[in-house]
Design brief:
The structure is a homodimer. By secondary structure, the first copy, chain A, is mostly helical. Chain A has helices at 8-19, 23-31, 35-44, 47-55, 62-68, 71-80, 83-92, 95-104, 107-117, 124-127, 141-151, 177-182, 207-217, 237-255, 270-297, 299-304, 312-335, 344-376, 385-416, 425-449; strands at 133-136, 160-164, 171-176, 201-202, 221-225, 231-236. Chain A has three domains: 8-118, MgtE N-terminal domain-like (MgtE N-terminal fold); 133-237, CBS-domain (Roll); 265-449, SLC41 divalent cation transporters, integral membrane domain (Tetracycline Repressor, domain 2, Orthogonal Bundle), CATH 1.10.357. The first copy, chain A, is elongated and about 95 Å long. Chains A, B: Acts as a magnesium transporter.
């Protein structure tokens, strides 16, 4: 690849412009370019800037740039980047190239990255960085401040300082920089430490729980420890925000009944788009085939009272809608830990009356609709239209109640089975309610219309 | 209210226990108590701790505690709390009590709170706090550090320092504390300032956009300015995380087809639960009535070919499912600004072939289903079962394509009209696709079955 294609003067202009902008804006500018153009521009930047650009998780072509650059430059960038970001980039580079790059790194960076790469994606271990400030508990305030001034440029954050036991190296306490700078220089570091016991997370904790901990305690960084209480790294608040946004996208997509996609919509290859959507669509289609089976079962009734068919979509969809309301309420309540698994019966006891009232409201509207259409002569529902109206009203109460109950309990079931409650909950509940809805509808119809049109 | 009900010794025990825990854990403990118990405990805490407790946005009974306490204690608490939190609490206290409390506050606090209360909820102005560190641009590094040490305890964050023009008082630049402590004491403060122009947000900016800015620039705090460039306050990263979680809950609930509820599920009063859910449910029910109208229109065809009714739920729900996939994809893509309003035609051009392929896959499964049931003798679809199978297959292609297209374009339409794209998108699209699906289905049936069973 010819990285000299853009003229030197152009580069000087670009460079001076970029120098006045925040690195996040530079990344936005680069993301608007092709991978090749981005590589050229990054290759011509001063090293410090290109490190900053590559350190941004939002920079789309990080892997392509690292792969396209000459190895010595790529290695210098990886060594300059934060360890968590460098390991993320290496994670996505294919095997032979990754091995060559890794071998060329200096020993410190290689060890740090190798270590981070052992944690599975989506855990505190994979999210954390090893570039934090720690000091032994027998240091003074002044010693700590001097140390921070020295290492500041190579640390992801210096606002949280981690105090370790001088002999065991276990995490003893945390100090915030704001308290530290107000401390008496000769006082021991622990004199400005927090009063509460240090709060840490294990390396295996899923990233959503890490996000919850950071948000609960308003931390700028949370320490990650191993099973013996030794510090492995820190997860910072900006990483958590990125993880939260990613999580939110996955939740919305799963609720929409598809596999999660982490690429931007317009960048997803066509085949992948089909793959991610077809799977769930087929599962739901095959489940929904039971509606055809249920209707075949009631085909005699249907033949006798074709008028019943007219209201099937209306009655069924109401069950689906009430179910998806209940499901989305409980998905969030579970995610925010407002309800726990053991609360399922409390939820059921709330949804039962809620479903009856909501179904009753819809039932009344339905009865009014049929009465008005019949009386105004818009459509003739036959001699027994009053019984038909009662059938629709009563079915709606039954179906909406079933929808609310099933919709609220499905997330508990999914969570109990170890799945994410958001997984295809809404469309899955619609399908379940559709099939049950047909059975309820025809049973209620048989009850009210038996001996007349049935 | 008798706040002496818990014995003094018990309080001493509680107090010592609370003293060793993080304030967020104390709040969690208090949230498990009744409002009255929580008030008693808070009333017996040392003032500094009760201020910390009330400063936590997750503390549920803040308004109740402030209202129940004697006025002098309540005023001391409000004055000690951060201004943004105090104004949030006052916002929710009813008129006469709020006025009395406000009048009893000292002038500084009252001015700050009055100012914050002028901004509508959900904007940068309502989210910001006025307790930030600002220094004139002609100060030195040492002057700034000394100032920070002095005011540290009364500021929400001291990690971002805002440099103002000494005469115009406009925001000139920002300095991070980590750079400040490494600076030469006698050097001017601007020598350690960031190279890029200061990034700020207007007070009227919606909180989602503030969250996006903080997440994009990895800020710990973003300055809020008025139209003349004067600083009004800062929004900190922890406020943004809380706002993001709230936003996420609202999105999930709106996608589930209901009004957003910000209370915990089990704490929502029954009447409110019905109110929040019945509205959209009724709107969707009335819209879905068009399915009955559409089927009435085709009732002659239905009477001739009752077998067509069997597949209505199956065919309709597939359209709804593909629509909700497309909708959820585009809702997120719009929220993350991966696609913009003007990209609607790009999205349409992607969804058209996607819908055709997905519909084709379902169509093939549908044809196989009918063939197997017919050949195996599970059900007799009549002499023209082959034409029926073709009808189902072709309808599925049409309906899934329509669902994908409509589902992907609805969020654009909602956004263009000024609504949140998440608003009831998924159930609304299902309703739209249901009605259209019936028309497509019977039209395709007429095309293939006309002259045979129709």
């Amino acid at each position: 690849m010819n990285i000299g294609k853009i003229e030197t003067t152009e580069h000087a202009a670009l460079t001076s412009r970029l120098g006045r902008e925040h690195v996040a804006d530079i990344v936005e500018f680069l993301n608007g370019k092709t991978a090749q153009e981005a590589t050229e521009i990054v290759a011509h930047m001063p090293l410090q800037w290109s490190v900053e650009v590559l350190d941004q998780p939002h920079f789309r072509d990080a892997c392509e740039v690292i792969e396209a650059l000459p190895q010595d430059k790529a290695v210098a960038l990886l060594e300059g980047m934060s360890a968590d970001r460098a390991s993320d980039v290496l994670r996505w580079i294919d095997a032979p190239a990754r091995g060559h790059l890794r071998d060329a790194l200096n020993a410190d960076t290689r060890t740090a990255i190798d270590h981070l790469l052992t944690y599975p994606e989506g855990t505190a271990g994979a999210l954390m960085t090893t570039e934090f400030v720690s000091v032994p508990a027998n240091w003074t305030v002044k010693q700590t401040l001097d140390h921070i001034r020295e290492v500041e440029h190579s640390r992801e954050t210096v606002y949280a300082i981690f105090v370790l036991d001088p002999t065991t190296k276990r995490l003893v306490n945390t100090v915030s920089l704001r308290r530290l700078i107000s401390g008496v220089p000769d006082a021991p570091i622990l004199s400005v430490a927090h009063a509460y016991a240090p709060i840490s997370v294990p390396a295996t904790m899923p990233q959503e729980e890490v996000a919850r901990a950071i948000s609960k305690y308003d931390f700028l960084a949370v320490p990650v420890v191993d099973s013996t209480g030794h510090m492995l790294g820190i997860v910072t608040v900006d990483d958590v925000i990125d993880a939260m946004i990613e999580e939110q996208t996955e939740d919305v997509q799963r609720m929409g009944g598809m596999e999660a996609i982490d690429e931007p919509y317009l960048a997803i290859p066509f085949a992948e788009m089909i793959k991610k959507r077809a799977g769930w669509l087929c599962i739901l289609f095959v489940s929904e085939m039971f509606t055809a089976s249920a209707m075949q079962f009631f085909s005699d009734e249907l033949e006798k009272a074709i008028v019943l068919a007219l209201f099937i979509p209306l009655v069924m969809s109401s069950g689906g809608n009430s179910g998806s309301q209940a499901t989305s309420l409980i998905i969030r309540a579970l995610a925010l830990q407002q309800v726990r698994l053991r609360d399922w019966w409390r939820v059921a006891l709330r949804e039962l009356p809620t479903g009856i009232v909501l179904g009753g409201i819809l039932g009344i509207i339905g009865v009014i609709r049929i009465t008005v259409w019949q009386q105004a002569g818009f459509f003739d529902y036959g001699d027994y239209w009053k019984l038909l109206a009662v059938t629709i009203g009563a079915s709606l109460i039954g179906i909406v109640t079933f929808g609310s109950l099933a919709g609220s309990l499905l997330p508990f079931l999914l969570k109990r089975l170890g799945f994410d409650p958001a997984t295809a909950s809404a469309p899955f509940i619609a399908t379940l309610v559709d099939v049950t809805g047909i059975v309820i509808y025809f049973s209620v119809a048989w009850l009210f219309l038996h001996g007349t049109i049935l």
